Amino acid sequence: MSAPTIVFDLDGTLVDSCPDLIGTLSWLLEREGLDPIVYDEARALIGHGIKPMVEKALKLKGRGESRDEIEAVYERYIAVYETRLTQETRPYPGLLAALDRFAADGMILAVCTNKIERLARQLLDELDMSRRFAVIAGADTYGVRKPDPAHLLRTIAAAGGDPARAVMVGDSETDIRAAQGAGIPVVAFSGGYTAIPLPDLDPTVILDHYDGLPDAVSRLLTR
After folding, report:
1. Any known ligand binding at 9?
2. Which one of the listed residues 9, 16, 20, 175 is annotated catalytic?
3. What is the pLDDT of residue 48?
4. Where does the record place the catalytic residues (predicted)?
5. What confidence score (pLDDT) does residue 208 get?
């Protein structure tokens, strides 16, 4: 029997990256001659990946009608964002202790994010977290991305895990829908960036602090 596999989303789940994501977005909009986006409004754009976030932000400002414009602005965003990935981004309180406990229990840890893999790896490298994960799968790793359950299932397979002994940990609709589609229980972290109230998404468990994550995962695996 394979060890249990715990799969984590990245932005809004493992790390609070909102300050750097939105800081870069505000810089970008100003460079494009547009008004900055309201912070809470920008938070709601996170979760589907950087390109969809940039596209939605442009359209909120009356721009982004052509794919060429979206691609050009997206490339400018990436060029700046990769220089400030961890300027303010940090793991959530209690998260590292929970990862330590999972590792001590012999569990397999993996990341399944809609961030492109190169940036996800760079971010986790800079925070000295990459070594904790057997697999770091981004939106471009398998040609599919959450909420497609194949993104999650292929991450579990790459880590050598079994979907029947896996738990997803995320913060938003994309994570919850991917887990539900894969038939995998999902712990939803309430401190993330969901645009939809978590109870409306019906995750298996809603968690307010990572101090309670090991016990929540244990209950789900036992069940």
Report:
1. yes
2. 9
3. 79
4. 9
5. 98
Structure tokens at 35: 């008004």
Q: Report DSSP letters for 21-49, one per residue.
A: HHHHHHHHHHHTT-PPPPHHHHHTTTTS-
- For residue 49, the model assigns a pLDDT of 80
Spans of the chain below 50 pLDDT? none
Q: Which domain holds residue 51?
A: 18-81
CATH number at residue 147: 3.40.50.1000
Q: Is 68 annotated as a binding residue?
A: no
- Rounded-to-10 torsion of CA 103, 12, 121, 77: 180
Distance of CA 213 to the CA centre of its chain: 17
Per-residue pLDDT at 8 = 98
Examine the domain organization and report whether 38 and 120 are in the same domain. Answer: no
Give the count of domains, the chain. 2
Q: Which three-class secondary structure state does DSSP give residue 96? A: helix
Question: Which pLDDT does position 31 carry in this prediction?
Answer: 86
d(C-alpha 102, C-alpha 98), whole Å: 6
pLDDT of residue 7: 98
Residue tagged 């609070």 (tokens): 16
Q: Is 11 annotated as a binding residue?
A: yes
Domain boundary among the residues 36, 51, 81 is at 81
State the pLDDT at residue 158: 98
Angle at 140 between CA 198 and CA 96, to 5 degrees: 55
- Residues 169-181: pLDDT tens digits? 999 999 999 999 9
Does the active-site annotation cover 9? yes
